[in-house]
Structure formats: C-alpha cells, structure tokens
Specification:
Elements (H helix, E strand, L loop, with lengths): L1 H39 L3 H4 L14 H9 L2 H32 L5 H11 L8 H11 L5 H5 L6 H11 L4 H9 L4 H12 L1 H16 L3 H6 L8 H11 L4 H21 L1 H7 L12
Helix pairs in contact: 1-14, 3-14, 4-8, 4-11, 9-10, 11-15, 13-14
Length: 285
C-alpha cells in the first residue's frame, strides 16, 4: 500500500508540474497579445505614462478611428483575406491531388521525382527572389493578385504532408472504388478527400498563416498603394506614424484577429493532423 501511495503521489506531482509549466507557457504567450489590445484602447497620456500598466483608466476607440482614417485599412484587409484564401484553397487542391498520385499510383520515376521535390526544400527561398521577380515582370503581373497568388499555389511541404497521410489509407478502398467503376478523379473526390480532412485542416492553417504573414515577396512585387497587404500596411504605418503607438497596436489587433479565428475554427482538425500516422511511416513507399 505504501508503494502504491508513493507512486500515486509521484504521478500527481508530475502531472501538477507539467500543468504548471504549460500554464506558465500559456501566460507568457498570451501576455503580448493582451498588452497589444490594451495599448490599442489607451489614450495618448496613458500610453506614455510610466510605469506602464495593463489597467486602462479611460478606454477609447480613437486609435481605431485614426487607423481607418490614415489609410484604407479595409482595402488592405480584403487584399490579405483574398490572397491568403486563394492560396490556401489552391494548395489544398493541388497538394492533395499530387499527394494522392505519389502515394497510390505507380509511374516511372515516381520516387526519384518525389525525392527531388524534397531536396528542393533545402534550397533557401531567398535564392528564387530575383528570378521570380524577373519572371513576374516579364509576364506583366507586377501590382496584381497574380503575382501574389500564382507563385505559391502549391508547396512541396504540402505535397509531402498529404502524401504521407494518404499512404496510411488502405489500398483496398481504392481498389474497391475502381471495381465499382469510379474514375480516378472520382476516387480522389469520394474516397481520398473525406479521409484526409485532418491533414487538410493542418495544411490550411499553416498555409493561411504563412501567406497572411508574408512580407518580403509582396514588398518586392507590389508598389501600388491599393494592392498592399496588411503586413505592408503595418510597415508603412510604423514608418510614417511611429509615434502613434496606440494606432500601431490597433493595426496589429486588426491584422492578428483573422489568424486567431482561422486557428479556432480548425483547431480540432489541426490537433489530429499534427499527430497523424503518416509522418511516422515516412520512408516506406
């Protein structure tokens, strides 16, 4: 009995320590967001007061009014939403389709092509900036949605992610669909897609967040005021109105809210996706 009580006490102590560390980590992560929102509703005298405080004595929406007055923030918000959504949808379709081909079809050079694609992940993305800009300029796509969407419509990491997950799907399901007379695209649409929702949710979140935060590529191909995305707008806001800290924080709140919404909507599938079985089985074609 003493041994059982001792083990039970150790388990409780271990779990309590883990929960305490997780809670501490959550607090550390949340504090900057809370400070950002609190600062965005402070008047100027409270923003500049010392020592700084999380308590807002006289909350105001003036920083948000200034934000919408100083720049067309709704236009920038629409640009970011449109580009991020289009890139995410394109990645979900093309990456899952390519993943299905690499996982369930046998064709000449399949494994070699796949490993070449994986090898391209080791090439820094900065290497392609100059050549990408020259190509976009020759196509006449500067200051357009095409320049922001087309180059990133499919990613190697997305193909890898989908391929590894689809490999865990039994071949018997695909064979049964073929016997029933289902076409290749019908198998992909009716059999594969319903089974890979967790990995698609994971890919959607990662792609949307990456594109939403993209700064370097839009900075290179966009110089029109109306085509700016939110990261570019925040950069301009910080450089031109750097002394208006509350307004800058208001812009940061507007920029981060859609990301939080997307994550909360797909959180359940995301947690399933990061523990997916396919990643554990990599290396077995």
């Amino acid at each position: 009995m003493e041994i059982l009580k001792s083990k039970r006490f150790q388990n409780v102590a271990t779990k309590s320590m883990i929960y305490a560390l997780l809670a501490l980590g959550a607090i550390v992560i949340v504090i900057p967001y809370v400070w950002m929102f609190v600062t965005s509703i402070k008047p100027v005298e409270e923003v500049q007061s010392y020592p700084p405080s999380f308590i807002v004595k006289h909350p105001t929406v003036l920083p948000y009014q200034n934000l919408f007055r100083l720049m067309p923030i709704l236009r920038y918000l629409w640009n970011s939403i449109y580009v991020s959504a289009a890139v995410t949808i394109a990645n979900l379709f093309f990456c899952s389709l390519a993943g299905y081909a690499f996982a369930k079809h046998k064709f000449w050079g399949r494994d070699k092509i796949f490993f070449v694609l994986l090898g391209s992940l080791m090439i820094p993305w900065q290497v392609n900036i100059i050549s990408g800009f020259i190509l976009i300029r020759k196509l006449g796509w500067l200051n357009s949605y095409n320049a922001l969407i087309v180059p990133v419509m499919a990613g190697v990491f997305g193909v890898f992610l989908c391929r590894q997950f689809i490999m865990s799907i039994p071949n018997d399901l695909v064979d049964a669909a073929k016997i029933d007379g289902c076409s290749e695209f019908g198998i992909y649409r009716l059999v594969i897609l319903p089974l890979i929702k967790p990995v698609l949710a994971t890919l959607a979140i990662l792609t949307f967040l990456q594109q939403w935060n993209s700064f370097i590529w839009p900075l290179i191909v966009i110089n029109s005021n109306q085509m700016r995305t939110l990261p570019l707008a925040l950069s301009v806001l910080n450089s031109q109105f750097g002394t208006r800290f509350a307004t800058i924080m208001a812009g940061a709140v507007v920029a981060t809210t859609p990301m939080l919404i997307v994550f909360l909507l797909f959180q359940k599938y995301f947690m399933k996706g990061i523990t997916m079985k396919g990643l554990k089985e990599y290396g077995t074609p």
